[in-house]
Design a protein that fits this description.
Blueprint (H helix, E strand, L loop, with lengths): L1 H43 L3 H29 L3 H16 L5 H19 L3
Helix pairs in contact: 3-4
């Protein structure tokens, strides 16, 4: 999601080259760190300092994701049908752990198209 978002912002700023550069600049460092560190992590992964480091990064990532969810929710949940749809999607994801996210997105899109004429006047 972050790469898609930065790619979109890059596109808005500088077209296709901006999208490519923004996505590459966001994705490449994480990818390289992961690829370069993976062999060493297997060897040293049980060290208490490394475990604490990974736990800290995990907590920071969860916080960053939760923060972005809060910002997106404030800007996206503008009416009752949208809020109910978000609650239903969250409940489905909570209950059905193996449900693929694209299924949720497609179902929400279809439901949104079906409900739009009922909730908006032309």
């Amino acid at each position: 999601p972050v790469v898609i978002t930065t790619g979109f912002i890059g596109y808005l700023v500088a077209g296709l080259p901006g999208a490519c550069l923004a996505a590459l600049a966001t994705f490449l460092p994480c990818y390289l760190i992961t690829v370069l560190a993976a062999p060493h992590f297997k060897k040293h992964g049980k060290r208490p300092g490394l475990v604490a480091f990974v736990d800290g990064i995990t907590a920071a990532a969860i916080g960053a994701i939760a923060g972005s969810v809060a910002v997106l929710a404030q800007r996206s949940l503008t009416d009752l049908p949208t809020a109910l749809l978000a609650i239903a999607a969250a409940a489905l994801l909570w209950k059905l752990k193996k449900l693929p996210e694209p299924v949720i997105v497609a179902g929400a899109a279809l439901l949104g198209v079906a409900l739009f004429p009922l909730t908006h006047r032309f």
